[in-house]
Amino acid sequence: MYTLLLIAFTMIVSLIITPIIIVISKKLDLVDRPNFRKVHTKPISVMGGTVILFSFLIGIWLGHPIEREVKPLILGAITMYMVGLIDDIYDLRPYLKLAGQIVAALIVTFYGITIDFISLPIGPTIHFGIFSIPITVIWIVAITNAINLIDGLDGLAS
């Protein structure tokens, strides 16, 4: 029950600060302008990652007040946020962005946080063994890019 309340609270925090961050980013001209490669037709905030990071940190702070196991997640999240922010502002080349995302994911795995197995609802548990680190890195990078893809509309991902 506590977990559900924590998720609900962080979601409410996200919903409250998203419009505030959008207004601030437009005033500071931290926006992504439309062009032939973009789906949006008007400038949108590049600060959506700020909302996601802030909500994540609030949830971590309330749920697990800076336990040893949580520090690598925080460091990885901040690194991923910085890569995304730099990309949004300076339009990084894809290989540099991917390299930064891999570094952020490796920070997490370096501290032993990996996806070691999956349990299927119908069937066996699959243990990854020596493949747990590359699978974890691929998963973190893939999820990050999936969120980035849906963030073409103002505030959608956050």
From TrEMBL:
InterPro entries linked to this entry: Glycosyl_transferase_4 (IPR000715), PNAcMuramoyl-5peptid_Trfase_CS (IPR018480)
GO cellular component terms attached to this protein's record: plasma membrane
Protein species of origin: Staphylococcus capitis
Membrane-crossing segments per the record: 6-24, 44-64, 70-90, 102-122, 128-150
GO BP annotations, alphabetical order: cell wall macromolecule biosynthetic process; cell wall organization; lipopolysaccharide biosynthetic process
Location in the cell: Cell membrane
Gene Ontology MF annotations: metal ion binding; phosphotransferase activity, for other substituted phosphate groups
Keyword Transmembrane: yes
Positions contributing to Mg(2+) binding: 148
Keyword Magnesium attached: yes
Pfam families linked to this entry: Glycos_transf_4
Bilayer topology: Multi-pass membrane protein
Keywords: Cell membrane, Magnesium, Membrane, Metal-binding, Transferase, Transmembrane, Transmembrane helix
Cofactor(s) the protein requires to work: Mg(2+)
Name of this protein: Undecaprenyl/decaprenyl-phosphate alpha-N-acetylglucosaminyl 1-phosphate transferase
Coiled coil segments of this chain: none
